[in-house]
Specification:
7 strands, five-stranded mixed beta sheet, 3 helices, 17% strand, two-stranded parallel ribbon, 145 residues
Length: 145
């Protein structure tokens, strides 16, 4: 003989709606974080500051850096000036409309930056920008521009 309980028996169930809300929140959070990250191609150098600095789009660009010792870098690869010229010729043949950002260390000699600029012009790059740290962003953590 079976005796029933006076307390109504409810079947346990898992609520899906709160789980879906949490998953959408996590998805949106990860998307926003991944969109805000900037891929830095150039070497880490101590950029000089300037009053008229403005942020530019860094899509499909080439980074040429010069450290404080005058050593040139293509993206993050250290090179000599001769190999840099050859590499830039190769890149110019593939994409002649590419933008070039020159990152010069604040302690670098002016001659080294002009030498890189001359190499870029001789190869055929004319869309050249100098990357600086803006005065407006000075003191803001993570501002490499």
């Amino acid at each position: 003989m079976r005796v029933s309980s006076p307390v109504p028996h409810k079947k346990a169930r898992i609520e899906i709606i709160p789980l879906i809300d949490i998953m959408f929140f996590l998805l949106a959070s990860f998307m926003m974080v991944s969109l805000s990250q900037v891929h830095m191609k150039g070497m880490k150098v101590n950029l000089p500051t300037g009053q008229s600095g403005e942020t530019q789009s860094k899509k499909d660009y080439i980074s040429v850096s010069v450290d404080s010792n005058g050593n040139p870098y293509f993206d993050k690869t250290e090179m000599t000036y001769d190999t840099l010229t050859a590499k830039l010729k190769q890149v110019h043949d593939e994409n002649p409309e590419a933008k070039v950002f020159i990152r010069g260390d604040a302690d670098s000699v002016h001659f080294n930056i002009i030498r890189v600029l001359d190499i870029l012009r001789s190869v055929g790059f004319y869309k050249v920008a100098f990357e600086i740290k803006s005065e407006a962003l000075k003191g803001v953590p993570g501002s490499g521009r």
